[in-house]
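Late entry, written up from scratch paper. The run itself happened at the end of the previous shift, but nothing got recorded in the book at the time, so transcribing now.
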Amino acid sequence: MSGVVVSIDNKKLAKASIAPLMQLVEDDMKRVNSLILSKTGSDVEMIPEVAKHLIDSGGKRLRPMITLAAAQMCGYEGDGHITLASSVEFMHTATLLHDDVVDESDMRRGKLAARMLWGNEASVLVGDFLLGQAFRMMVDVGSLPALDVLSHAATVIAEGEVLQLQTAKNLETTEDEYLEVIRSKTAALFAAAAEVGPIIANATPSHINALRSYGNNLGLAFQLIDDALDYGGNAGDLGKNTGDDFREGKVTLPVLLAYRRGSNEERQFWHDAVVEGKTDDERLQKALEILVRHDAISDTVARARHYVEMARDALGTMPDSDHKDALVEVLEFCVSRAA
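Output as recorded:
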């Protein structure tokens, strides 16, 4: 089914890429990937099978790349950034395994979700194993401040999952409440990924704060674009099927905006879809029409662009460098996914 393509009239954004970032951290990412593979090993056969199913499925690895770049741009010369970047990716992978169970998702990154192949129990428990390995690697680095940042992020992410359950199928959720959910579920790990690099590089407090702010605002923008893409993108950009949020009855920002701006009849439509579960393909097409009518998708992208600019400004006091330029282009890439 074709979606509604969100048009962003900005040629620079349309050409944005994470390639400069990938080139800067290429050698370190090879070491990260090797460490990740070694840490999925277990005598329990199912653990590496489930873990590698998701790890090998082709995610961008954006969060660990940000950790590596942040450490490099602050002059770090040790090996701890490799270990912390691997920890960040394990935390992210664990949350994906858990999310797919909570959301009852069938697909992840164009493949069957692990829960569809091994069951919900295995997905949750292997996610727990990866979290345990992530914390073991954090300890190996020997930086209490970095451990504090990442462990706090793990707590916030879990709080975000519970908060999302509390607001699930609630069309009266405010935009502030929704932003708190994605700040916890998505932005917290981006912020931590960016912060631990300068921490182990013994960077100045102002640089640590700048990179944390960058990661936090990038994470908010990234999730808002995902919200928009679920109705106006393609599966390749999302790593899941378009329309999944609608079929799962998720109350994302486009839905909240359309619900508030709509007629009584349209609000009844959203109630039937979100609360009653009436989400067939015909209703998905109607949802798209309502979202476009009320500019809900384009305004969600506009919200994302606001956070992108905040992230760009956060880097303003950082010294000019190839790493800074690459991190700025990541911001442009984030929004260009909806172009």
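Strands lie at 107-108, 111-112.
(Scratch paper discarded after transcription.)
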